[in-house]
Write a structure and sequence with these properties.
Distance between the termini: 42 Å
Helix content: 40-55%
Largest sheet: 6 strands, mixed
Number of strands: 6
Number of helices: 10
Radius of gyration: 20 Å
Strand order of the largest sheet: 2-1-6-5-4-3
């Protein structure tokens, strides 16, 4: 497997067979494996389960019998994630409302989520777009685009031929388009846009709100049938503005609105008594917002620690 740098979320490809035991192996690789599983599944708890299962698989064999432990774990995690997604797709088809990924806020998700924040490859917008891919396409796309694996190496991981892997990647890119971050993106500019958005909503400043949103602005809400939320996306700036006016007028007075880092991007949270009830993530298009992702399903927020 390739020697990918730390910036691409992989530890060095050292031979781990001489390490003292599984504790050291787990400590060395759990964050890298979680980063892949989370991007595959969009769920913190499920990603943690996949990582645990991968290590249980490793525990059934001798470390000294494996040439590269990292490669072994990467292959097991990839295929466990593919199998999980195949079963999860049926559940997501009958999910109540829009299905959105579980958010990570300021790295305060359950360990090891607090170690995998990466601005360009972890955003809610990125993960939501990957839902257009089937499980194998998603694995190939991530391994190629995020982790820089060659087609030969990806083929070994997923049990396909290199030519087939190239075709899968080409098909995946056609489905999701170019997800590469734009050169010179200004973080402070995004933060100001989010701040202006919330100020406009909470002050009912429609003129300012219209200046911030793109014409095709879309609202996605995920209540999972557990709390009240729009069951379908709201498309278009006029319908979105009307919805925002209605929703945010009904926010309870004890809710505190705070800016936050949501999956490596500027976002917002709403909490009461140190408990998070709403997480808002955004998709950015230059100096405007093109989408809002409203995550209110309590099952998708319970992994977040209380903010101090």
């Amino acid at each position: 497997m390739p020697d990918v740098s730390e910036s691409k979320h992989l530890p060095p490809d050292d031979d781990m067979t001489n390490m003292a035991g599984m504790t050291e192996v787990y400590s060395s690789y759990k964050s890298a494996l979680f980063s892949l599983a989370y991007r595959m599944l969009g769920s913190v708890s499920d990603a943690e389960d996949i990582v645990q299962e991968a290590f249980l698989n490793l525990n059934q064999v001798s470390l000294h019998s494996i040439h590269h432990v990292k490669s072994y774990l990467w292959k097991v995690t990839t295929n466990l994630s593919i199998d999980f997604l195949r079963s999860a797709r049926k559940r997501r088809e009958v999910y109540v409302g829009s299905w959105l990924p579980e958010p990570i806020i300021n790295g305060r998700g359950a360990d090891p989520a607090d170690q995998v924040i990466a601005n360009e490859e972890l955003s809610i917008a990125f993960l939501h777009l990957l839902e257009n891919l089937n499980p194998v396409e998603r694995a190939v796309f991530l391994l190629r685009e995020v982790y820089s694996y060659s087609y030969d190496e990806i083929a070994q991981l997923i049990g396909k031929s290199p030519d087939n892997t190239r075709k899968i990647q080409s098909r995946a890119k056609q489905k999701v388009g170019d997800l590469s971050p734009k050169a010179g993106e200004d973080r402070s500019k995004k933060e100001k846009t989010v701040s202006d958005f919330m100020e406009a909503v909470l002050s009912n400043n429609i003129e300012k709100l219209l200046s911030i949103l793109s014409d095709d602005f879309t609202i996605y809400s995920d209540g999972g049938g557990k709390v009240k939320a729009n069951l379908r996306p709201i498309f278009g700036i006029e319908r979105a503005v009307a919805s925002l006016k209605g929703v945010y007028r009904k926010i309870p007075s004890n809710l505190i609105v705070m800016e936050a880092d949501v999956n490596g991007q500027p976002g917002m949270i709403m909490k009461a008594d140190d408990q998070i009830f709403y997480v808002l993530a955004f998709q950015f298009d230059d100096d405007k917002l093109s989408a809002l992702y409203n995550i209110v399903n309590p099952d998708k927020l319970k992994h977040l620690k209380k903010l101090k």
